[in-house]
Structures
1.
Amino acid sequence: MRTLKFLLRKEFLQIFRDKLILRMIFALPVVQLILLPYAATYEMKNITLSVVDNDHSEYSRKLINNFTSSGYFKLVDYSKTYSDALDQVEKDKADLIVEIPEGFERDLIREDETKVLIAANAISGQTAGLAVAYANTIIRDYNIELRIQWIQQPRLNAIPVIDITSSNWFNPQMNYKMFIVPGVLALLVTLVGFLMSSLNIVKEKEIGTIEQLNVSPIKKYEFILSKLIPFWVLGLFVMTVGFFISFIVYGIYPAGSFWVGYLFAGIYLIALLGFGLLTSVYADTQQQAMFISYFFMLIFILLGGLFSPIENMPDWAQYLTYINPVSYFIEAMRMLVLKGSSFWDLRYHFLIVIVFAIVFNGLAIFKYKKTV
Amino acid sequence: MTSEKEIVIKTDNLTKKFGDFIAANEITFEVFKGEIFGFLGANGAGKTTAMKMLIGISKPSSGKATIAGFDVYKETEKIKKSIGYMSQKFSLYEDLTINENIQLFGGIYGLSDDEIEKRRSELINKLNLQNEADKLVGSLPLGWKQKLAFSIAIFHTPKIVFLDEPTGGVDPITRRQFWDMIYEASHNGITVFVTTHYMDEAEYCDRVSIMVDGVIKALDSPAELKKQFKANSMDEVFLMLARDAKRGE
């Protein structure tokens, strides 16, 4: 244990002497928490719209008006023909085309039905999907509006309508930031914990100092603890900075207990640092370690449900998320911050990260040898 | 070298194989307490491999060896307490100060705080580093670094110190000073096991072994070897033996 004291002193001295790391520890949470939630938003506010109005009637103008007043669409172009409008899409000026046929008003009144063409630029499938969904809603509402006007006084309701209303639990305003901020917090802890721990040990391999430690009577557990503890502390510190920024900038703070959050992050970090340690067993150079880390981080984060909900993923990808520690942490953070989940609500998440911690560290300790 | 001297390193047909490649082939020798033992060989001859087995960070494929009375298979952790090691690569922490490096390694080897402090100030005075003691090791010239690395390798007064090409890239004056420090350590009863490429350094050793292609080809005092090979210098002896080496760099 006395040896551990000396080793920890060394690690902390080295970390605090590295100005770049210190700066990164503050810069990372600030930049990520301030930029990402604003940049990575799903809400579409400025879908550019090109309209081809072949009818020029009161009804067609009203429909167009419904589009522009919805707040989602920005009318950028009136084209004479569909192919002109398509030109606009090709030039990337318009995301969505709405073509209103000639005789729109007439058909609607006489035949009681007509057709409107909507065409979306599907280069970004997500934008296209959302644009079409918004357009559908607008057209449906428009339709209902007309019917209500037409139906005279209350006979028995001519068309039985089931009206669906929704209320959004846990995030009533559907504020996307509420969704992304806890995720970014999880991302921060993950990045700091994993990257720094794996690179640190490999750096000692690269410059050769690890050999000097290997020929000394340091016990294996002392060495491993001396590498885990500093980054564990650092990870929790970064989380604290993150919580602070979330509160200052967005007014977001956990609806649940901070202690549950820290307990979860503490166990999660042990798992993650074990994984970093395991990486460093296999990598001989920092370049290799960086590459391995990147490989896993990218998959873990993209499959972790940070940006796209796991439920949207295909089945095979959902199975992959079961073995992804990051997805549990992101989910737990969201449950804690948004729903105020308690320790008991998160018991399965706790159980799973404990298993991860045991497996990763067990493997790392088993694989780490004081020999060459 | 008489046999009544205490034996601190003893190997018996020690062998290390990597697949089909025999890096060290049935090495047998003894090293006595307080002796300066030169372990010579061309690049790729298997010196470093052999040394790594002796310091307990590489498991032998076969054969026997005891270091300070401890078995290289089962008692590596006990061996590690009894030895000091200075590797080819400079391996102090460049981002720690001289004092911090000394305290770290003193602590790792289980010295008490008082003992560390006492030896630290002695060492700083001896090396004349009073003004540099709180500077980062990375800022020191190479020669000073090497002397410091050696001093730290023997800081805990080990029974044996292993030096892997300790004077590579160092100027002749510093090399001379470095060897003075080796003599002093040997005088204080620390056995010195040193590999080197410099044949003038081989002349300073009490006894030398010369390894060629994983096998020890010669082992005796420099004077005896020169007589045996009818050579004027260790350089000539080495060339005669290493000329037939199959393994290169």
2.
Amino acid sequence: MNILSPKYLTIRMSQAPTGSPFARTEVLADGTALVTIGGSWTLDQPLPAIVTKGDRVRVVTEGLADFDSSLPAWLYANFKNVRQLDLSPLPPRLQSLVQIAEKASSEQAVPEQTGFLEKFGNWGVESSSSWGRAFEHIGDTASGFLRMLVGRAKVNWGDFTLQLQTAGVDALPIVALLGFLTGLIMAYVGLIQLRQVGATVYVANLVSLAMTREMGALMTGVIACGRTSTAFASQLGSMNVSQETDALRALGLHPVEYLALPRILAVTLMVPLLAVFATFVGIFGGMVVACAGDLSIEQYLTQAIRAISFKSFLVGFIKSIAFGFIAGWAGCYRGSVAKRSALGVGEAATSAAVLGITFIVIADAVFAVIFNLFDL
Amino acid sequence: MSAPADILTCADLAIGHGQVVVMDRLSFSLAAGKILAVVGPSGCGKSTLMRALGGLDEPLGGRSTLMGVDLHATHGEERAAILRRTGFLFQGAALFSSLTLRENIEMPMREFLAAPRKEIRQLAEYKLSLVGLADAMDKLPSEISGGMAKRAGIARAMALDPDLIFLDEPSAGLDPMSSGRLDELILRLREAFGTTVVLVSHEVPSILRTADFCVYLDPDTGTMGAYGSPKSFLQAGNSPKAHAFFTQARID
């Protein structure tokens, strides 16, 4: 016995197989459609097509060999809407498999074709409600923060300390690598230009100012979006799928306060610290290139310290706080509105990173204008 | 016709999580076309036993065979071929969350049958109709109730006309009408195709209606408390614990 044959254990009808399945129809004198079926009906071969008219159908067999669920499925699909269906000539076990299938109460609705204008309108409505939810989430976070300050919010502090570790300490190696390379690249590109005017010493100003005011915070914010926002979106999205957020609501806990707030706080706290770290590592990266030929270490450091002011640090620091908040919020927001499916969680993670990076760049532009106005 | 072969056997089987043995010295066999109910208190290892028998988890000792083959010593295409001839309903239904119910049922058919798209669609609709979900075919798993998800899981387990179906608490979350229909479906499938069924259940009336044999897992001794026909458990004397399990539930 070949145990790999698909059906060795299935009980079959006693007749020998008589080839491909067939079905033919004839109309009797009283208007009844007589459908004759026979042959071997199995899932792995094409089934016959049939056209019947009228409300009365009688099905008979002629040399019916073995069958699997393809035959009751075929009978069900073809005759489920026939008013007077006579299956009595069929073997009882086949009859019962057709009769037990429940009919749909109505035909499945075919989705209507939508025109361009309607699609555009739907997109507009969907987008505006999505923005509405986004601002609602920001509002919930802000009110949760205020409630926390007055001691009325239930916050999961265990999550907070865990996220300090995962969003902060665990990110040190990647922040160090990317910060170092950013400083290195800026120094390399800067030196090529500055050599032409004999001002290579200003490469220290270029790197240190850019890292302090701009690149330290920006790079760290982008890393936080790629690393932390996606993780938050996946965590909260999965909790949505398994109804854990519903369980929190049922306990009278607010998911934004309990889950999102500690995460957003942790990342808002850690990104500025990481940004300061990235700034110093970036300045060091620039020094490696600058001191490889053009400058001495003393020259580079003296020039760098002279270039950086407290104001520059303040600018970078304020930005990094905002970027940290954006990264945390984007992840928590997208996770909280994730669809309840594996695909939905994946989409949430992707959109969290995209949303976070986009908002960080927009915020950076806004900060540039504001700091310019205040002469910072 | 010769006597049906044992489709499922286990000899001195030990099961558990990690290296922790939950049940051992499990020895029984099941003939093709029979329905076996695995019963016992919650957490005694019923689902773990079913996963080991179905080849999803490695046993911690002993041997089990499925369709004459020791799945734990078989690899590659031969193992995959055996697994394709079994259907599995998981406790949480385990539907693919991004696919509609119809697509969930069609998925194994598309992967393993050469049938045209229209026939696969017909088959999926039929199988969903068998479990009373004719009206919910285009819904996503997140849009249906737990009981409906269970029924859809059963339809997917039946997708490829398996010779053996493992059902983990099929009646849990179902209303009495649906539960009764499910019992009837199990019996009709066995009658029509000789499908063997192994089910984990706490529903004593359902077990009495459908099962030919019953394994009672006793967490106190860590092994089989009794093996026999469900009706024999209704009489005192066979196994006091199994008897109490059945009759207590009947009184409740």
